[in-house]
Amino acid sequence: MLRVERLQVGHLKPLSFELSDGECLAVEGPSGAGKTLLLRALADLDPAAGRVVVDGQERNELPAHEWRRRVRYCSPEPAWWSDTPRGSFPVNAPTAKLERLLQSLDLDPRLLDRPIAVLSTGERQRLAFVRALLDEPPVILLDEPTGALDPQSKALVEELIRFQLLSGHCVVLVSHDEAQIGRLADARLVLSKEKPTPGAGAVSAP
Amino acid sequence: MTIVPLSYWDLLLAATLLFANAAISWRFRLGLERSIAISASRMVVQLALIGVVLKFIFAQSSPFWTLTFALMMVVAAATEVVARLHARIAAWPLMGLSSSTLLFVGTFVTVFGVGFVITPEPWYAPRYILPILGMVLGNTMTAVALVLETLSENANRERNAIEGRLALGAPRFEALSGPLRSALRTGLMPMLNSMATTGIVALPGMMTGQIIAGADPVGAAMYQVVIMFLIAGATALGSLIAAAGGVMLVTDDRHRLRASPSASHRKSV
């Protein structure tokens, strides 16, 4: 369970919301409204005042790296720090699970040992998604997870997100795809670029 | 055998070579005449002053004056580190890190070298302590500056990869292992290179000095070997402390990569 109390993100009005296990919150708004900033603040990658609680534990009660193992931010531009994807995967990744996840996104395991430079943008984004799910973080923050994908891969990623929700993970989804939000989200949070108005920043049912 | 004393006329004679610099600047319109004059004057005044100051300190031969002067050298070296860096690190923490690194390394290596290897009588003999501390500080200063520059530069350039690792739950030292390694390598490189070529191309300054002063070249070489080992130890230790401290400075207590203060807006110390 994810509970956010008066989280101060950028110049936005303090945000409060709550997600039960298996629920998906869609975050919408124009570019520059602070969607990415919100996800980064939840993962404690940027300083932000307010309380964020996951399964009864507040952000600051846990060491930062422990927190980010529970609250996983997935960037729209996945980062690599090695020549092949495998070098940027956890060394002790359980093989069976890794293969199952790759398979579910229609990724050939041999891609793990190709040079990153020859992989397509969509392959990189899907590989990064697999990497983020390997250690089963209870809260998954997805920043435009299907931005670089063709319709078929997009459907597979959505299927995997749905599977994560069914197995009890909380998902916060930033997306510009109205139909996708309709398919996945249980609630919406609309951020606006203008000065906060009454009602903005409130969570509403779709 | 005594050293040939130099007269002021000898200094003036040597100074005529500076006209070569001035001529180049004038001929190619480099506009460097002013800089040449300022740099040369600074060099003469600084060396003359240090000659007088060292003469005074050697005459006192007291632990107090030796240590006071040693401390001033440390502060000067730390200031130089900060001045050399275009590092994206706030100025005051940077000053704190470089001065504490240089103080610790300078003290440790000089005490080891003078107190246990060379063992002059008395132990605080400024004639040994100050030149050795100077060589140790000079080289450590370069290493510390290189380490911090490389670390902050790479941390900034590889921000995306570092934050990717942090987001996957890596603690800061793991997330910054790439920049950390290149910083250490860059910091250690000059010393390794100079150990490999010393004595082939250039004779080290201290050995040259001893030889001109009439010392036995083999004895002078042995001294130089000890000094090189001291410097090697000092640069390694200094690089390590600076790199570890640098990682702490570019991140915060929640293992977040700090927003970098831009180099041009950094307040000077």
> What is the mean pLDDT of chain B?
91
Helix/strand order of chain A: EEEHEEHEHHEHEHEE
Number of domains of chain B: 2
Give the strand tally of chain A: 10
Q: List SSEs of chain B in N-to-C order.
A: HHHHHHHHHHH
Cα shape of chain A:
globular
| Helix count, DSSP H or I runs of 4 or more residues of chain B | 11
The largest sheet of chain A, given as strand count, sense and whether it forms a barrel, is: 6 strands, mixed
Low-confidence stretches of chain B: 263-269
Separation of termini of chain B? 48 Å
In oligomeric terms, what are we looking at?
heterodimer
Instruction: Summarize the biggest pleated sheet of chain B.
Output: none
Q: Strand pairing plus helix content of chain B: what structural class?
A: mainly alpha
Strand proportion of chain B: under 5%
Quick synopsis:
The complex is a heterodimer of chains A (206) and B (269). Chain A is of the alpha/beta class.
How would you describe what is shown here?
The complex is a heterodimer of chains A (206) and B (269). Chain A is α/β, with parallel strands linked by helices and 206 residues long. Chain A has one domain (2-82, 135-204): P-loop containing nucleotide triphosphate hydrolases (Rossmann fold, 3-Layer(aba) Sandwich), CATH 3.40.50.300. Chain A has helices spanning 35-42, 64-70, 95-104, 121-133, 151-166, 178-184; strands spanning 2-7, 15-19, 24-28, 51-54, 57-58, 71-74, 139-143, 170-174, 187-190, 203-204. Chain A has a six-stranded mixed sheet with strand order 6-7-8-3-9-10, sandwiched between helices. In chain A, strands 2-1-4-5 form a four-stranded antiparallel sheet, with no helix packed on it. In chain A, helix 5 links the parallel strand 7 (139-143) and strand 8. The longest helix of chain A is centred in the C-terminal third of the chain and has 16 residues, at 151-166. The radius of gyration of chain A is 17 Å and the shape is globular. The two termini of chain A are 20 Å apart. With 269 residues, chain B is mainly α. In chain B, helix 6 packs across helix 9 (177-197). The longest helix of chain B has 34 residues, at 217-250. Chain B is globular and about 70 Å long. The A-B interface holds A 43-47, 60, 63-66, 68-69, 72-75, 77-81, 88, 90, 131-132, 135 and B 158, 160-171, 178, 252, 254-256.
